[in-house]
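Hi P.,

Sorry for the delay on this. The queue was packed all week, but I finally got your sequence through. Input first:
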Amino acid sequence: MDKYSYRKNIISTIVIVVCGIYLVRLFNMQILDDSYQHQALQNSRRIEVQYPARGLIFDRNGKLLVENQSAYDLMVIPRQIQPFDTLELLSVLGLEKETLLHNLERCRRYSTFKASTLVSQIPADKYAILQEKLYKYPGFFIQTRTVRKYNVSHSADVFGYIGEVSQAQIEQDTNYAPGDYIGISGLEKTYETDLRGTKGEKILLVDNHNRVMGSYYNGKYDKPAVVGKDLTLTLDIDLQEYAYRLMQNKKGGIIAIEPSTGEILLKVSAPGYDPQLMIGWDRGKNYHQLESDPNQPLFDRTIGAAYPPGSTFKTLQALYGLKEKVITPSTSFPCQGTAKTQIGPIRMGCHNHESPVNLRESLQHSCNPYYVNVWRRILENEKYPGVRDAYAAWREYICSFGLNRTLCPDFSNERSGSIPSVEFYDKMLRTKNWRWSYIMSLSIGQGELLLTPLQIANMACILANRGYYMTPHIVRPNASTGTRVEKHLVDCPSEYFPPVIEGMVAAASIGTARGAAIDSVEICAKTGTAQNPHGDDHSIVMIFAPKEKPRIAMAVYIENAGFGARYAVPIAGLILEKYLKGDISPEHKALEKRMIESNLIDTPPVSAP
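Then the structure:
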């Protein structure tokens, strides 16, 4: 082979090798490696998440309480960002530069290819300006979604609120991505999986300026969003609003339940706040303001606060005394009133009333010495080996009334209250050889005994039903939420209830709760005044009406309001009259005005701007 042919062969070999390399690279790029294809697709099309509208919330009469409204999020695909006018964008959005840069870095950490939320819930006026200028900002686009719109300015403790999902929640549930919203509290949290619906996808073709040019394959590969499921509440929103008027400038909680069904008719935690404060551009600022409010409007006092039940608890003590046969309806004990009555090693004070009193009169006058004597008989009952054993039996009975545990499945933040255990007192008293007088305060609903307003209202239901309660609930069960309402029998035969109920009738007609009287309605009530080491006593009433076939049972608990008859009783009476009669009678209008205008707190609660 001559020199020319040799060179020709070498050149040909080089050309073939180079072409082979190119062919292999092209094969790898086009067939094996889809990253370039993915990048090309990312530059030519955009996948927009279609957020479903959350389920609506209605009251028991079909009134729309919570709906949805449009919101605008500024989304970003970091890989597509090109140099842009930062100052103009900051001016339009009203953001600080540090906030924008921090959000951009967060989006880059999530993904450089996928879209994520840069700024959420942009107000409509800012959105209108931004939409006109968005073509200048490749990689940015507007995502339309819905946020909550509350049609009442109260009941935030019932509804709860939604907020952006956390990274921990994203890791736990693949349904969520950064920027998504999730129920944080209240019913929004409990029924999140029902309310949220299912997200969809819409694939759009875009040009190099990120402007939409049409649908990808005419929407063939789009996935429609599925709207969330609606909830119907058991609340009577008109009664709820009236109760909030009565509780303005007061601290406490009111719960009213329909005894025959367990449906919660009203639930008021005061002071509350406008749920709309937790929606929109200023929600973060509003939350911090609410959190720092000394009146604690974020704290749900109806199910999250555990208070001494005071003398409302005497009804259960009377039932147990009858059941254990340590007293009868005619059993009477003396009372020396404010002069204090000697009972064994202790002296117990009371307010002045006739003496001695029997069971009915003890409830009518809320006599403390009577129930200290009953307590002594309960714990010194010869039926049991000792006080500890008698207390353990009493505690088991008391807990059957739905105490020392949560009651309502619709709320995740409900407290169980406290009925102290035998072991608790062993440790506290540093002995197992108790005496009844060591824990005497429990006899009148004080000491270590703690209940929520919901538990006290449920006690009223048990008395109204003569021995049972239905699971308290605020969402009407359906095929979606499931049926969780059950009948619960308490550890007390129905035969022991009539004497106690007669005492409650006497309290409501001629006794400590007579301020709740309503014309032609027989009311059953028991007042309470709970001692408070941090200030004025708490005002309490447990009440139901009518006596026969009761339609409503309620607990009213007002902090630092003094005797039960002073505020809790008249407020309860007004709510009963509103519910049972439909309006307030002329003779009670002055009382209504006084209750509405009464101010028991120093600092006004936070309200909507």
